Amino acid sequence: MTMINNPIIPGMAPDPSIIRVDDEYYIATSTFHWNPGIQIFKSSDLANWELINFALKKGEVDLRGTHTPAGIWAPHLSYDAFTKKYWLAYSHMINMAGREFNADSYAMWAEDIHGPWSAPMYLTSIGFDPAIFHDDDGKHYISILEWETREGYQAPGHIVIAEYDLEKGEVIGAWHRVTQGFTSRGCAEAPQIYKHKDYYYLIIAAGGTGYAHGVEIGRSTSIFGPYEPHPSKEPIITSSPRHLFSLGDPDAGHFEMYNPHSLMQKAGHGSLVQTHTGEWYIAHLMSRPLEGTLLNPLGRETSIQKMKWSQDGWLEMEDGSNLAKMEVKGMEGVQLSPVGSHDIHDHFDDINYDIRFMTPYRKQEASWVNTIERSGYLRIYGENSLFSQMNPAIMATRATSFHYEFQTRIEFLPDHYSETAGMGLYYDSNNWIYAHLTYSESSNGTVLSLLQANLGKRKELVQQTIPVPDNVVDLKVIYKSGMVDIFYRLEINQEWQLLKNDINAMYLSDEGVNGEPGEIGGFTGLFNFIGSVDAHQHDSYADFDFYSVKNF
């Protein structure tokens, strides 16, 4: 028997949507304010996943100015067997102020999972978390959360379903309100329709994307309902099985539902797949807090549970419980491929840099980042401050472990104190740590310094800068359970020198980037980054010799 260890996709990989085409499996996940948008992963064994593509990588959406945690939410991946097309539906959350969530939802299609993907086709602005269901009679349906803004009505709203003409891009008939949830946890969202034997099944997320998160299910003989809830009237998957009544409660965190007996927390937002071996699994999001805290620096990751159908036609976990597990049985007769490494080692010897590089807010373009102008180096032209939500010059990768070492080598010749280049840790524009080279007027040369942003406040972390006479420095970050040490060396064969130790970086987490205690501030997680700033003349650039992340 083979066993699958969770998370199957560590680091920022929330809201997974899973499908199978032949004997290959694909998962799409949310990306929020990060570009390219919508990660697509591939696997042949459900245990080991490789990032193969992004769906939004040609500037189809402008994320500049996006406030945390808005941006690209909850992509839904589907496959239409009639037309042999892959479909992606997603929401672009534009505004969350006043709890008037303004989201425009779109759909795209491709004949190959690698693309090219069609231009986005507008679906609706009724709410968020759209999903496309392709019925076996050739009809198509959209399910989505209808967002409620009126006083005195149950938040967050109704799950609604409508028939949709994918050729014309039009709703057929009216939206049908089918449920506000199948348990008392509330916060029903992310509705997905499946058909099994005589029933349509509606799987939804519930409890808010925090410690009360769960997967709920209802069924009906008609796609527009009425849907009856699972007989237990509890989630079929959760990290916190105890009962919760939270209807209409806007609190998404529910820290009181933390389960001290489980390594996995926040299990919810599920997506169902039948394997080529005839078995059933649900992919879902999860989190792993730092020990002794409720802080999740790795954000919401992707996990998987093995399922079964009961004799009376209800979906449930294979072991009969509803507690999500860190280890589950693999597919029968399928050998797991060798465990892939999440380490990154890019020496920029190729024209294309590592596919895992992402950029906050703006699109990656050769005009500001490329390996062409200097072979063997990644050149980054400095632009906005790291506080900017418009044009920061940042190249980043998801943190995937609680303990890792991150290194780079930088060549940089600044001539003004507003020109910097370096590396560090990043959550969003208001929360980061940045070790960097810059220009010192007092020493008339390049120096090494350290900046921190915490809830938008800027702080110098070193009292004295380090002279860098040759304009070249190696930098190293060691991250261990939220604490950070930063080192430097001016020559390759030199011993590493300490720049700053015991930096508390625990706040670079979903819960730590909000000034309100007990609230979830973000949905993404920690990133490692290299980058450059030029708030002087926009004429400086930095050359990075390599980028290395080794996980322990």
Describe it:
The strands form nine sheets. Strands 25, 27, 28, 30, 36, 37, 38 and 40 form an eight-stranded antiparallel sheet that branches. The chain has no helices and 40 strands. The mean pLDDT is 96. It is globular. The two termini are 27 Å apart. A hairpin with a 2-residue loop joins β33 and β34 (457-460). By secondary structure, it is mainly beta.
Task: Extract low-pLDDT stretches.
Answer: none
Q: Count the beta strands.
A: 40
Structural class designation = mainly beta
Between the first and last Cα atoms, what is the distance in angstroms?
Answer: 27 Å
Residue-averaged pLDDT, rounded?
A: 96
- How many helices does DSSP assign? 0
Fraction of helical residues: under 10%
Strand percentage: over 45%
**What is the multimeric organization of the chains shown?**
single chain
Specify the overall morphology.
globular
Radius of gyration: 24 Å
The biggest sheet amounts to: 8 strands, antiparallel
List the helices and strands and how they pair.
Blueprint: E1 3-5, E2 17-21, E3 24-29, E4 34-35, E5 37-43, E6 50-56, E7 71-80, E8 85-95, E9 102-110, E10 121-124, E11 127-134, E12 140-147, E13 157-165, E14 170-179, E15 189-196, E16 199-206, E17 214-220, E18 228-229, E19 237-238, E20 265-274, E21 280-287, E22 301-309, E23 315-317, E24 327-329, E25 344-346, E26 359-360, E27 369-370, E28 378-381, E29 393-398, E30 403-412, E31 419-428, E32 431-440, E33 445-454, E34 457-460, E35 466-467, E36 472-480, E37 483-489, E38 497-504, E39 527-534, E40 541-551
Antiparallel strand pairs: 1-24, 2-3, 3-5, 4-26, 5-6, 7-8, 8-9, 9-10, 11-12, 12-13, 13-14, 15-16, 16-17, 17-18, 17-19, 20-21, 21-22, 22-23, 25-40, 27-28, 28-40, 29-39, 30-36, 30-40, 31-32, 31-39, 32-33, 33-34, 33-35, 36-37, 37-38
